[in-house]
Write a structure and sequence with these properties.
11 helices; 72% helix; single chain; 295 residues; two-stranded antiparallel ribbon; ABC transporter involved in vitamin B12 uptake, BtuC; mainly alpha
């Protein structure tokens, strides 16, 4: 069997694939966090709960309405995004002029409330969610078998991340959003509904979290705890990439996922902390993050 650094090629590639899949979720979730923080200056601690909501919406529309995975992939982000818009307009918007700590505390309380409600209703154990029949099975790459669904997750995550980056950085709408957060009075003088733009921005971030939840459901199962298990890692990814940096969130998400996968091969004992070690080193050398700008 071929070896690389004394490690079988199949084992190395398998862990690289696992790291790439985890990185896909890190990138998609940290992208939503970066959008909300970069444009609204809100540290959205409810992001993990919105990720969990996306997975549960997919599960419930399948059980109650008989809708398949593809309908759930569209409906869940829309439903969770609408819920996020309602939360932002009715409660979160009242905190914008206060210290950032108030927004963090509010979203942290919201996350605990949602997690508690779903634990009370569904219990703490995970529930299976089947992958669509078109994406079952695997393809032989020669050195390993690649499960089709996991390949789909990587491709879908990358396409969505790049599309959102292009929307915010390369379009007139994105320029308007950035201007509305920097100088809302001036933008509003042009007849633009700034509060609506901010609401849609928060809804976009929540929808991205829900999309990640639907993609993750067939891999990790649907559980009320799935958001709290990943959100701390995602915050570390955002910090390493640079708070508010869209491209930083995407690139760092994939890189740290791969770094985590490689660590499981060469030094498994450190795989659970390697991302936080990297975060500490980056903060010491570059406090604004790899792609962030100094205040």
């Amino acid at each position: 069997m071929p070896m690389i650094f004394g490690i079988p090629v199949q084992a190395l590639m398998g862990q690289l694939l696992v790291g790439l899949i985890n990185g896909s979720f890190y990138a998609l979730l940290s992208l939503g966090l970066a959008v909300i923080f970069g444009l609204l200056r809100v540290i959205n601690f409810a992001h993990g709960a919105q990720y969990m909501l996306g997975a549960f919406v997919a599960l419930l529309v399948q059980q109650w309405l008989g809708l398949n995975y593809w309908f759930a992939l569209i409906l869940a982000p829309l439903i969770v995004g609408a819920f996020g818009a309602l939360v932002e307009r009715s409660m979160l918007s009242r905190l914008y002029k206060l210290d950032h700590l108030y927004g963090l505390l509010f979203t942290f309380g919201l996350a605990l409330t949602l997690e508690g409600l779903f634990r009370w209703q569904f219990g703490a154990s995970g529930q299976p969610y089947a992958a669509p029949p078109a994406l079952t099975g695997a393809v032989n790459l020669g050195f390993m078998f690649l499960p089709l669904y996991r390949g789909w997750v990587v491709v879908a995550s990358l396409v969505v991340c790049l599309a959102v980056w292009a929307l915010i950085e390369k379009t007139r709408l994105g320029a308007t959003l950035r201007a509305a957060t920097e100088n809302p009075v001036m933008v509003q003088s042009f007849g633009i509904n700034v509060p609506m733009l901010l609401t849609l921005t928060y809804a976009l971030g929540a929808g991205l979290a829900a999309l990640a939840g639907v993609l993750a459901a067939p891999i990790y199962q649907v559980s009320p705890l799935m958001g709290s298990n990943i959100i701390i890692v995602v915050f570390a990814v955002v910090v390493v990439g640079g708070m508010g940096s869209i491209m930083g969130a995407i690139v760092t998400g994939y890189l740290l996922g791969i770094a985590e996968g490689l660590t499981k091969v060469f030094y498994p004992e450190a795989s659970n902390i390697v991302i936080f070690v990297i975060m500490a080193i980056v903060l010491i050398l570059r406090p604004a993050g790899l792609f962030g700008k100094e205040a």
